[in-house]
Amino acid sequence: MSMKKNKMIRLTLSYLIIALMSFIVIYPLLWVIGSSLNPGQSLSGSTMFPENPTLAHYKYLFDLEKSNYVKWYWNSLKISTLTMILTVITVSLTAYSFSRYRFIGRKNGLLTFLVLQMIPNFAALIAIFVLATRTGLIDTHLGLILVYVGGQIPMNTWLMKGYLDTIPKELDESAKMDGASHLRVFWQIVMPLAKPIVAVVALFSFIAPFGDFILARILLRTDEKFTMAVGLYEMVAKQFGNEFTKFAAGSVLIAIPIAALFLMFQKYFVSGLTAGGTKG
Amino acid sequence: MDTKKMTSNHGRNAALLSILPGFGQFYNKQFVKGAIFLILTVSFFAAFYDTLNWGFWGLFTLGEIPVLDHSIFLLIDGIIALIVTALGLIIYAFNIYDAYNNGKKRDLGLELNSVREQYHNLLDNGFPYLMISPGFFLLVFVVIFPILFVVLLAFTNYDLYHSPPAKLVDWVGIQNFIDIFKLDLWRKTFFGVMGWTIVWTFVATTLQVALGIFLAILVNQKDLKGKAIVRTIFILPWAVPSFISILIFSGMFNETFGVVNKTILDAIGIGAVPWMTEENWTRLALIFIQSWLGFPFIFAMTTGVLQSIPDELYEAATVDGASILQKFTKITLPLVLFATAPIIITQYTFNFNNFNVIFLFNGGGPAIPGQNAGGSDILISWIYKLTMTSAQYGKAAAVTMILSLIVITVALWQFRRTKSFQEEDLM
């Protein structure tokens, strides 16, 4: 009897906690959706479930003459995609060399990467700013992409090297015996086996620039070159509260596709991180 | 020539001769290689003579005539000169090493490689370098270069009043560090920010980790219904881009129209709370927000670990008469902590530098009289403010160096303990 009662109490408590947590998790998200449907600019008179919901704010965002939102969206996608492609290429090459070859400077190179991945590259933001000004790369997407890719290399190289180390070396050695060239071993033997980690690195290097605020904020100067993060921040910061409903609409439009993508690929994230974290 | 006497000295001779690059190789009768080294050296000096000359002059003086000499640009050129010199020295060292090695081979009476073999060797040994070079060069320019720049900047007086081109910047030694620890305003700010950074890192991270693990174990109970949907809900804060969530929260906590004061606290019967203007309330809100943002990650990791623990372990424990608490502390917790330890530690370093949440929520504010950082500023957001708003570049660089030293120390300590660092072929 008492065991059954115990179980009852335990389960009820669990459900209660889960309900509370779910409320805390979902509330802000529902609130922002509700805000985006509120008529009017500010939130002063708004409610979570507006009586006369409107899509006006969404229409405003897509009005190319009034708002740069679509441009920001495009900029963010462009920068993230290019960063992803360049990162995957450079990281694959670097990680493969560190994993498969024993050359002078390898040990020091690995140690350097280890230390570098600890310091976020925006710590040197003064330097990045001054350097970009000096080279004329300030306010260009190219400059931003280069900084992103450079910052991604150390951590992802370790991640991928850890995975490549688990692919048996006998495979490429026997291929070399058969006369395959260095590039061919890399491209046709090892890389096809490394697809899962390539996917993880690609995901990481896509998400990181997308969520980055500080570097984009330092390097980008004109409104139409902004990324999503900087653009939305400016929208909120410029006249706080006065454009909040528009900001809310903008957030919903970006959060939903990203969250959907994320939930689809979530398993890769977890497996990639645990693989890299323990073996890396 | 007495060959017998000479044999033991080829190595040394060749190495000595290659103080003039190429001549050691000539001595070893590897004329093609020697010529390449010689040409490389000559063209190196021909190409970089001006860069080096100008760069080092600039680096030492930081300019002599205001307006005409731009100290910061000179500093940049100086760093380029340093990097070029370092690359040159690497080639130079390789030249001596190569001459010595081949001389040694001759001492031992071994055949030297022919030009053809050398070419194949170069292809084989050079391949990894070739593959690394794109990443390496990018890294040199966007990561290593900025680090060198910050390190050097920390020893200059670059600020609003010494701002080129109108004024020159000067080397001031460790004055910036002395100022930070000696001048009242700076010392107070530094230790205030440092203290909050540490509290923030430990409290926020520990809370998110504890919450994540707790919820994962809770949801993982066998007789609980609706696991899939609950797990999806709990992952949501991770799935939504964090800068958006933070901006949403800064709206929710807003004192004039925010829903937290207007609706939620009102419903419980608590009056309005000054979330944005009282230091401690901002901090509390930040810790809450970071827990909200951070727990799903730990939740997902822990769920993965929990699902991999075999049921037999618990069944055996039940047979042995273990209580639920014992099963938790003796089986579940150790396994979870062991598997997620490296990730948990990176969470701490991440929060130590978590600029986004601090800056986007309240700009590091509220402002505090008597110090030049806001009440919720951590080191990294303070550095941002010193750079972007008060133009205290030299001080900002000094603080960056202190921050980096802390991070590197912790990081090395952590990695010394992980498997990858102990891997035998790393060393």
UniProtKB/TrEMBL annotation, chain A:
Key words, A-Z: Cell membrane, Membrane, Sugar transport, Transmembrane, Transmembrane helix, Transport
UniProt xrefs under InterPro entries: BP-dep_ABC_trans_perm, MetI-like, MetI-like_sf
GO terms, biological process: maltodextrin transmembrane transport
Major place of residence: membrane
Molecular function GO labels: ABC-type maltose transporter activity
One GO CC term on file: plasma membrane
Membrane topology: Multi-pass membrane protein
Record field: transmembrane: 12-33, 79-98, 110-132, 197-220, 247-265
Pfam families assigned: BPD_transp_1
Every ABC transmembrane type-1 domain range: 73-265
Top-level taxonomic group: Bacteria
Subcellular location: Cell membrane
Family affiliation: Belongs to the binding-protein-dependent transport system permease family.
Protein name (record): Maltose ABC transporter permease
Organism listed in the record: Cytobacillus firmus DS1
UniProtKB/TrEMBL annotation, chain B:
Keyword terms: Cell membrane, Membrane, Sugar transport, Transmembrane, Transmembrane helix, Transport
Leader peptide range in chain numbering: none
Matching Pfam families: BPD_transp_1
GO BP of this protein: maltodextrin transmembrane transport
ABC transmembrane type-1 domain residues: 194-414
CDD domains with a match to the protein in the record: TM_PBP2
MF annotations from Gene Ontology: ABC-type maltose transporter activity
Transmembrane segments: 31-52, 72-97, 136-155, 193-220, 232-253, 284-306, 331-350, 396-415
Family, as annotated: Belongs to the binding-protein-dependent transport system permease family.
Protein name: Maltose ABC transporter permease
Organism: Cytobacillus firmus DS1
Lineage, broadest ranks: Bacteria, Bacillati, Bacillota, Bacilli, Bacillales
